[in-house]
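Shapes recur. One chain:

:::
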Amino acid sequence: MPIPFSVRAARVALLAALAAVVLAGCATLQPVQTAQSMLGSPQSAVRETFGNPTETYQLADGTQRWIYSKQPYGYEVYAADFDAAGKLTGFRQTLTEKEIYEARPGVWTKRDIAERFGLPREPVQYFTLMKREAWSYRMYMAGNLPAHFSAYFDDAGVLDRTMIIMDSRGGDRSRSK
């Protein structure tokens, strides 16, 4: 006995919805891998896949960066880079030791840190005796060890130093969900 058209259409619609959920899950669980397959795609495709960015920056070289921050409870900040034509050229997790070690004390400013790691979602602290403002981010070090990355700025807004401190309380990766 043939399946009625309405039941068949409902099955097709259900399968299409399931495929959309699976694809969205891939983008959530493996954002870097998902975005790497999208290189060359327009901004609209990136927005459809990852949603609205938490911040956007027009960079000095004419390119644009979108920040996707999972802070303050998550441990990741992703940067999506677009060329002048609005095509995706790169997507990476920026809260890594490699990225942090590229910061240049005495040269970088608050704007440079924000463009790389996004604005802090933890409360900004000011240390009166040091005369330094501190921005803090949660991150994972090698081996999935929870830590905090802090950037310290002088009163002129110039980066003075960076610091990575292990989280002595440990961490639970499930908090980032």
About this structure: The chain has five helices and eight strands. Confidence is low (pLDDT under 50) at residues 17-28, 173-177. The longest strand covers residues 132-141.
